[in-house]
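Why does residue order matter? Because the sequence determines the fold. Keep that principle in mind as you read this record.
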Amino acid sequence: MLVLFATFFRIGLFTLGGGYAMIPLIEAEIVNRRKWVGKTEFLDLIAIAQSCPGVFAINISTFIGYKKRGTPGAICCSLGTALPSFLIILLVAMFFHNFQDVPWVASMFAGIRPAVVALIAVPTWNMAVRAKITFINCWIPVITAVLIWALGVNPIYTILAAGIGGFIYGQFIKPTE
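Structure:
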């Protein structure tokens, strides 16, 4: 249990940019290093964590903890993931108002923002490759993004529509192999 907690505490401690920025660290640790799940199962976990309510990284850590040690493992991993952020935010909230107008602090945060975009872009690309997104089916994520971003469609509806579409395709359209 201590290994589970320490693993996710370290991931939570050294990741800036939220849940999606944690994906490469979580994958490196639980798929590549510890081999707790395989690459395909990890991709499935990302899809499940994305579609569940709550914080993305905590959802993934909860699933991993449950798989390894049941409910106590799930609680342990969830706490390990959330505790570093909680402590850091608590410290920032206590002291940030003293430093928010300091030019080098503002510059530091301006520099962090593009790096966070890259931390999100890399796992997005890797997920697209593993999900076998090609030029033939790339219209699905593009249309989904446009529906959510430009038209304000609720992401839940797009997930439901994609699931139903995948079911119909798999059952009635896709030729048997």
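The mean pLDDT is 87.
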